[in-house]
UniProtKB/TrEMBL annotation:
Coiled coil: none annotated. Transmembrane segments: none annotated. The keyword Nucleotide-binding applies. Keywords: GTP-binding, Hydrolase, Nucleotide-binding. Gene3D superfamilies: P-loop containing nucleotide triphosphate hydrolases. Belongs to the GPN-loop GTPase family. This is GTP-binding protein. It holds the Pfam family ATP_bind_1. CDD domains: Ras_like_GTPase (cd00882). SUPFAM superfamilies: P-loop containing nucleoside triphosphate hydrolases.
Length: 201
């Protein structure tokens, strides 16, 4: 490659595309993560929070949040010339969970974003992917002002299996998010290979 273009005489590479879900609780940073890393203008389906939703939208821990995803976020990132990820951010509130089944169709894997101030908010996402045998990593979004805990303590609090990667990240930072996405691709490929081996033996 020279300046990002294929070398003369070499045919262009047809990239492999994978679908990755970004899930987690309300206000954990899913829309921010997709926007931080997407090389296209992200598709967002956000609506303003209203008084009507106050009884069901728990704003504790996210007092500055004024909008919420009602369908999905969508973005794209090219990790290598031959590898492109399509990112689908899921809605966080329980009343929109019916959309998760459709969004998860054909997904290679998922990122479950967690906020240490409200770890219980990501239990549903962890349970969802475990029940459907969709490989996932947990990304602990390190918010400013939030207490920092050892990863082993967070893993224990979430009751994660030993083989589920747990990574610290900043959903606002492109390079930090890229590392999480690379982590989920690696984990998903290893998980799928191990599952195939178990089935054939």
């Amino acid at each position: 490659m020279i300046f990002g273009r294929p070398e003369r005489g070499k045919p262009p590479v047809e990239p492999v595309t994978f679908k990755i879900l970004v899930a987690g609780g309300f206000g954990v940073g899913k829309t921010t993560l997709v926007g931080a890393v997407s090389e296209i203008r992200p598709l967002r389906t956000e609506e303003r929070l209203t008084e009507a939703g106050r009884p069901v939208d728990d704003l504790s821990g996210v007092p500055g949040k004024h909008t919420t995803t009602v369908a999905m976020d969508f973005g794209r990132i090219t990790l290598r010339e031959d590898l492109v990820l399509y990112l689908f951010g899921t809605p966080g509130q329980e009343r929109f969970w019916f959309m998760w089944d459709e969004l998860s169709e054909g997904a290679l894997g998922a990122v479950v974003l967690a906020d240490t101030r409200r770890l219980e908010d990501c239990f549903a996402a962890v349970d969802y992917f475990e029940r459907r045998s969709i490989p996932f990593v947990v990304g602990v979004n390190c918010f400013e002002g939030a207490a920092r805990y050892p990863t082993d303590d967070v893993r224990q609090a979430l009751d994660l299996d030993d083989d589920v990667p747990l990574l610290l990240c900043d959903a606002r930072d492109r390079e930090s998010v890229k590392e999480v996405l690379i982590g989920v691709v690696r984990h998903a490929i290893a998980y799928t290979a191990a599952h195939r081996q178990t089935v054939t033996t």
